[in-house]
Write a structure and sequence with these properties.
Layout: H1 4-18, H2 22-25, E1 26-28, E2 43-47, E3 50-54, E4 58-61, E5 69-79, E6 90-96, E7 110-116, E8 121-127, E9 135-140, E10 151-158, E11 161-166, E12 169-175, E13 182-187, E14 197-207
Antiparallel strand pairs: 1-4, 2-3, 3-14, 4-13, 5-10, 5-14, 6-7, 6-13, 7-8, 8-9, 10-11, 11-12
Length: 210
């Protein structure tokens, strides 16, 4: 047992050093709007290795990724209608400065990957500053994103385009060139008196390498 102690200490030390805090990678962006009811305010909450997004809370990477990035996380939406059109969404955005428009506070510019449980779809959109018309670059429906269920996401933004993988399967991709900047994530705005909440477990982003 005594011989094992140094080994155990080394394993524990390595684990402590390798256990990255999500706050080292991400920060909460400022809320784009305020509501009269506190339960519907946009918010971002850090909980150990998890981030909770509520009512269009926005998470922004601290670093920029000029040559593209790879985003990974386990996502689950936990507040919103069980059935119907008012379920939560998740948007992961590449090549963005993290700035939002006014209500309903969509991102101003960037490549947006939208996970929509209500329509069972994933879409890739291009948002540009000064334009209210977002270009839909690719779309895949016939999918299922159930409440309180974790989905492993891996999204690659390369100089040539975007590829979306869910639970190890390629879902959709688009060829598009948009200069890299920061990476962001946000959930849906409160609508129809229904608050929204999504969790991102161990969200991480690293530079793209060809």
């Amino acid at each position: 047992m005594l011989r094992l102690m140094p080994v155990l200490h080394c394993v524990l030390l390595c684990w402590l050093l390798c256990a990255a805090d999500v706050k080292d990678t991400w920060e909460a962006g400022p809320p784009a709007f305020k509501t009269e009811q506190e339960e519907f305010q946009p918010s971002v909450r850090f909980e150990e290795k998890k981030v909770v997004l509520e009512n269009r809370g926005i998470l922004v990477s601290k670093k920029s990724f000029p040559e593209g990035a790879v985003f990974t996380a386990t996502w689950r939406w936990i507040s919103g209608e069980e059935q119907g059109k008012y379920q939560d969404h998740l948007c992961v955005v590449f090549a963005t400065d993290g700035k939002q428009r006014a209500w309903p506070a969509e991102i101003e510019a960037g490549l947006v990957v939208r996970f929509n449980p209500a329509s069972g779809s994933v879409g890739i959109e291009k948002h540009e500053k000064g334009s209210k018309d977002n270009a839909l670059l690719a779309f895949k429906d016939g999918l299922k994103f159930e409440r309180n269920t974790g989905y492993k996401l891996r999204i690659v933004h390369s100089p040539k385009g975007v590829e979306v993988n869910v639970d190890g399967k390629k879902i959709v991709s688009a060829e598009v060139v948009m200069k890299g900047d920061k990476v962001a994530g946000y959930d849906r705005e409160p609508v129809a008196g229904i608050k929204k909440k999504s969790e991102l477990e161990e969200p991480d982003v690293v530079p793209f390498k060809s």
